[in-house]
Specification:
Helix content is 54%, strand content 13%. By secondary structure, it is of the alpha+beta class. It has one domain. Strands 1-2 form a two-stranded antiparallel ribbon. The radius of gyration is 21 Å and the shape is elongated. The chain starts with a helix and ends with a helix.
Length: 126
């Protein structure tokens, strides 16, 4: 009985270490991808913003979040200055120019990279 108890304790300890390692690696994958999405969105915005919203691209940032479901990232324009022009991202056609979709295009182009990062995080278990 004591052997089983000791084995369970060792197994439990190993699972605890694994969870920390996976969370840390998922956090790295999330932050690297968030940074790439931000950089791509800024590049897209510089091309699409035009002369009246030149400062908009620089207002695109990301913040890391940490919750019960694990790490996450909020990517988008700040609400101050020309960041308030974030409405251009998804404008429903009521403004003179159509929706820019700078963030959506950046996120879509980085999905495969994020999946690879998560796969690498999971592969560290074995």
């Amino acid at each position: 009985m004591s052997i089983v108890s000791d084995d369970l304790r060792v197994f439990s300890t190993d699972l605890g270490r694994t969870g920390v390692r996976v969370t840390r690696n998922v956090q790295k994958a999330t932050e690297v991808t968030a940074r790439k999405i931000k950089d791509d969105a800024r590049k897209n915005a510089r091309k699409s913003a035009g002369r009246r919203a030149r400062g908009y691209a620089a207002k695109i940032t990301y913040d890391m979040t940490y919750g019960l479901r694990g790490p996450g990232a909020e990517i988008g324009p700040e609400t101050s200055g020309q960041g308030a022009l974030g409405v251009l991202e998804d404008a429903p056609g009521r403004v003179r120019s159509g929706a820019h979709q700078d963030l959506a295009r950046a996120a879509k182009s980085n999905v495969a990279d994020y999946v690879r990062g998560l796969a690498m995080a999971a592969s560290d278990l074995w």
